[in-house]
Design a protein that fits this description.
Helix 1 packs across helix 3 (45-64) and helix 2 (31-43) runs parallel beside helix 7. This protein folds into 3 domains: 3-108, no CATH class; 134-261, Jelly Rolls (Sandwich); 268-339, Phage tail protein beta-alpha-beta fold. By secondary structure, the chain is α+β, with helices and mostly antiparallel strands. The protein starts with a helix and ends with a strand. A hairpin with a 6-residue loop joins strand 12 and strand 13 (227-232). The strands form 3 sheets. Strands 4, 5, 6, 7, 8, 9, 10, 11, 12, 13, 14 and 15 form a 12-stranded mixed beta sheet that branches. The protein contains 7 helices and 20 strands. It has helices at 3-27, 31-43, 45-64, 255-261, 276-286, 297-301, 313-324, and strands spanning 90-91, 95-97, 107-108, 134-137, 143-146, 151-156, 161-173, 182-186, 189-193, 197-202, 206-213, 215-220, 227-232, 235-240, 251-252, 268-275, 291-293, 303-309, 326-331, 334-339. The longest helix has 25 residues, at 3-27.
């Protein structure tokens, strides 16, 4: 006699949770909420079905909200009609549709229909943390984007603005201040600008500089004294640190070459029914030296549609673990994706 009320209460709880998640995903999830949302979805496939129902109702209300009394005496019946195609679906047992969340959440995943599983998946083990791509706004308003593992130190004074690039790669958008030049030092090479946009990468034996807006002066110390090179937008150079006799040269860069150099910068990637291998290939292009590998051919052919932030490798892996039953194994910078047993 007591089982039916208990079941009803449990069902009501799931419906309330689903309604709450629809509202929260509509306004955008924080990174911690995103993790909580994924965990809630993965613990019971009924959660995804309940979420689907409430999302459909929410979308119908949104369409109804487009109607105003001056449009017609009554709302258009089409506003209350079901959507012409499902917002989320399971296709041929091998494809899954993911609606986007807020970009700030990192990986944009909203609503899923879960494949049949005998048991809810166990919480996957934590992978070693992957260094993040970060952005800093300096006290003068300049913006520095740091590639994974990059380290910079800002040393501002009344007469200049100095940045020491101690390790890695950084992209600089410099606030104009003609009274205080902006100088980036990397491995003894100085890149001087006033208001411009450029990229500097420090290798063990060289420094690469790419200019995309404005111009910079590159100063290289040599045995015979410092040498200077002027770089304008659409040009790059490489300064060898162990060959002071070499004179660096300005080299033109095509838009495709510049895009390849700056592929590490975060952006949104859009996929529509794309095989997982294609998604992984695109992620690898934007996240070197991190490399995702899919040795299983059937898994590599699994299709997905999603909006994903290019630098959120960990969020992408959580999505695959929760929605596709994938297990991630990491060795150094290589992450192997396998079907969970």
């Amino acid at each position: 006699m007591n089982q039916r009320p208990d079941k009803n209460n449990a069902a009501d709880g799931v419906e309330e949770q689903a309604a709450s998640w629809v509202l929260r995903t509509d306004r955008g999830l924080t990174p911690s909420e995103q993790d909580e949302f994924l965990l809630w979805l993965s613990t019971d496939r009924k959660h995804g079905a309940a979420l689907a129902r409430h999302k459909r109702n929410w979308d119908r209300l949104n369409r109804l909200g487009q109607w105003l009394p001056e449009h017609s005496p009554q709302p258009n019946r089409d506003l209350l009609a079901p959507p012409p195609r499902p917002i989320f679906r399971l296709l041929a047992g091998r494809r899954i549709w993911l609606a986007p969340l807020a970009i700030a959440a990192g990986v944009a995943i909203a609503f899923m229909v879960w494949p049949e599983r005998a048991h809810a998946p166990a919480t996957p083990p934590e992978l070693p943390a992957i260094a993040s791509i970060t952005s800093r706004t300096l006290e003068d308003g300049s913006v520095v984007e740091l590639n994974r593992g990059a380290v910079v130190t800002a040393l501002f004074s009344p007469v200049d603005r100095r940045i020491l690039l101690e390790r890695g790669e950084a992209h600089f958008t410099v606030a104009k201040d003609s009274a205080r030049p902006f100088i980036v030092s990397a491995g003894g090479v100085a890149v001087r600008a006033v208001g411009t946009v450029f990229n500097v990468r420090l290798h063990s034996t060289a420094v690469d500089v790419l200019v995309t807006e404005g111009s910079v002066q590159v100063h290289q110390p040599t045995g015979s004294g410092p040498q200077s090179l002027q770089l304008s937008a659409g040009e790059r150079t490489r300064v060898l640190l162990d060959d002071q006799a070499q004179v660096p040269q300005a080299m033109p860069v095509t838009p495709d070459q510049a895009e390849a150099i700056l592929a590490w910068q975060p952006r949104m990637l859009e996929f529509t029914e794309t095989p997982l291998l294609g998604v992984v290939t695109e992620f690898n292009r934007h996240n070197a030296p991190i490399r995702l590998v899919v040795p299983d051919i059937a898994l590599a052919r699994t299709e997905m549609s999603a909006s994903l932030r290019s630098d959120n490798v960990e969020g992408f892996i959580r999505l695959l673990e929760a929605g596709f039953g994938v297990r991630a194994e990491r060795s150094g910078d290589t992450i192997t994706l396998r079907k969970a047993q």
